Amino acid sequence: MIAQASRLNHVEEYYFSTKLKEVKALQDSGKPIINLGVGSPDLPPPPQVMLALQQALLNPDAHQYQPYRGTADFRRAIGEFYQNFYEVTLNTENEILPLMGSKEGITHISMAFLNDGDEVLIPNPGYPTYEAVSRLVGAKSVMYDLSEDTGWLPDFEELEKKDLRRVKLMWVNYPNMPTGAAAKKDLFERLITFGKKHSILIVNDNPYSFILNEEPQSILKYSDNMEGVMELNSLSKSFNMSGWRIGMLCGSEQLINSVLKVKTNMDSGMFLPLQAGAAMALRLPQEWFSDQNKIYLRRKEEVLKLASILGCSFSEDQTGMFLWCRVPTGTTSETFVDHLLQQYHIFAAPGFIFGSQGEGYIRFSLCATEENISKACKRLKA
Ligand SMILES: Cc1ncc(COP(=O)(O)O)c(C=O)c1O
Questions:
Q1: Cα(209) to centroid of ligand 1, in Å?
Q2: DSSP letter string over 268-281?
């Protein structure tokens, strides 16, 4: 019997990794499952992106190891994207690091900056990977509560009351998942001031800024020389490319170089056609996003109906590709979701998986066709 490393003792398998097996078993037994659980876009990537990938496949260099920092053209495309959509000027030589999705970036950043016993501020509710990875690297998670009362924004007064002496890093994620809270200039300014005051590295995880969101924002726009601030971004949601595994990290040369030290020891560059396709995507005009959003808006209207039929309450001005709702009183998020799954074959994400502050809530994804969402409504009414 080979014992697993003790760092795994406090880390569970990812919720969706186990729950989706149950969903699949129901599906295999003939149940007509409507999946509103995961945030994996069902729409195709832009056609010209797939063509660019195909063409790059014929490049004789495509099958060799690629540069650790990504190709110069992909980095230039990221630079143009940040300039055009966020008004942020980046040095494409040294302030950009392409990644295999932002999820891997969370691990690289944690390995680059956290020592055993360092503390990390993590949003509750929030993306579960922040906490899991902090545990894996031996850091201590210090949860900061987000709540409906504060519009799911950090409560700076509460943050100031914490003992912050050992805190080295703070994860933030605006536009927020799972709550749909928007990113705002004054929020980013306050976060930057807070980070500076306490010497805490602020990392904004920003994969949702183009989905049902009027004003895409980057935290980098509000920082001086990107000191103490980094941003993760991703093509997974904005361009329907979650399976491609492609994203990016942006920040000062010094911070990027630390992450590069980790990354160059973990992989050997990204497949060239992926980078060529992704560069094409990042250069698409604004219309790409407006067209996607027309579809998401129609889906959202259906999901609002579904949530109302279920007796859930919600705020309508949420951004992103989910609807975050409060479940009716007298039930837990897990019971509610299991009942929905077993009785009506509709799958949604229970709020508790995002942290204790997510208990009492449920997250519906907009990654299902309008037709299927409306089918779910009919099923419930029947
Ligand atoms: C807040 C947040 N960050 C990061 C990710 C991971 O994105 P990627 O596909 O770029 O790894 C997700 C995916 O669901 C997410 O919700």
A1: 12
A2: ----HHHHHHHHHH
End-to-end CA distance of the chain: 53
Given a contact cutoff of 8 angstroms between Cβ atoms, the answer to whether 321 and 367 are in contact is yes
Tell me the best of 102, 104, 270 to mutate to test the pocket of ligand 1, counting ligand atoms within 8 Å of each CB and taking the most. 102
Q: What is the torsional sign of CA 311, 313, 318, 321?
A: negative
Q: Are 122 and 130 in contact (CB under 8 A)?
A: yes
Same domain? 202 vs 271: yes
pLDDT of the residue at 9: 86
Three-class secondary structure of residue 249 per DSSP: strand
24 with 75, same domain: the answer is no
Cα of 231 from ligand 1 centre, angstroms: 13
Q: What are phi and psi of 164, to 5 degrees?
A: -100, 10
Say what the pLDDT of residue 17 is. Answer: 84
Q: Point out the residues of the chain with pLDDT beneath 50.
A: none
Q: Strands, E, within the chain: which ranges?
A: 34-36, 96-99, 119-124, 140-145, 167-172, 201-205, 229-234, 247-250, 313-314, 322-326, 346-350, 361-365
Residues 22 and 17: their CA atoms lie apart, in Å, by: 10
- CB 108 within 8 Å of CB 263: yes
Quote the pTM value: 0.96
Going by CA atoms, what residue is nearest to atom 6 of ligand 1?
103
Residue 116 and residue 212 in one domain: yes
The answer on 205 and 138 residing in a single domain is: yes
Q: What pLDDT shows up at residue 42?
A: 97
Number of domains composing the chain: 2
Rg of the chain over all Cα atoms, to the nearest angstrom: 21
Reduce the secondary structure of 337-358 to three states and give it as a string: HHHHHHHHCEEEEEHHHHCHHH
140-145, strands of its sheet edge to edge? 96-99, 247-250, 229-234, 201-205, 167-172, 119-124, 140-145
Ligand 1 pocket, CB under 6 A: 39, 101-103, 127, 173, 177, 205, 207, 234, 236, 242, 247
1 belongs to a structural domain: no
- Beta strands 140-145 and 322-326 are unpaired
The domain containing residue 74 runs over which residues? 47-285
Residue 30 tokens, joined = 């003939």
